[in-house]
Amino acid sequence: MSGARLISKKNEQKILCFAQNDEKCAFTLAEVLITLGVIGIVAAMTLPSLISNWRYKQLETAFKKAYSRHSEVLELIKYETGVDNLFNEFNVYDSEKNIYARAKEFYDLYYKKLKIIGECKYEAPVRNYNNTADAYIDWGDTEPLYMLSDGTCAQVKVNGGIIALTVDINGAGAKPNKLGHDIFVFRVNKLGVFEPAKMTKLYTDEELEENWSDSPAHIAQSGQPCSIKSKQKGNGMGCAWYAFNDINPDDNSKRYWENLPK
Q1: What's residue 49's pLDDT?
Q2: How is the chain split among helix, strand and coil, in percent rounded to 5?
């Protein structure tokens, strides 16, 4: 008890000393080291979380900018061509030639509105949403080709009865290069509306094998997956809707950007 009283008395004297602005007041070396040690421990505990949140906030901001930019491009195309429904106008399949007859026309219109400065080159394969496999999608492009003036990458594709756009919101040279993290898929739907792709169903491995065992593309993309539970190569292609609304696909009570899988 006497030891506690002594410490308390010393603290009172030191507080009084600083209050009186006495030049003789000073911290001991031990006190300084202890204070620095506490600061270091607190920093070590909080800094990783702060850095992680900052990175996710950057991705969220870049996502919103990319969505806005490409929405404007489509509106400009509508205005200049006088076409209200771009899906009906350009999603035209020629069965005899086995091609989408107006796909190139649409590509030319689209890319003309963007400031393309080069090609995007990926040093390693893009990964899927939960990092369980190298990504694969064919309605859209896993690795968007064209580099825009803001450093992002984009590629539009008419395929499988869909007009799809894949966007890398921070460019090929910036990580993580994963579907649903910095690479997202959008589409022009049947009403001609530009919308973020959304998961329609989460398939089990058994369901995928039972229904599409002979089709790797269907196994990879069925349901437009976006879930920590999916092992599909296309897992992440249906994440743009959740990113847009900031809703975690596996737990609607949580936010999307703050809960991206590692």
Answers
A1: 52
A2: 40, 15, 45
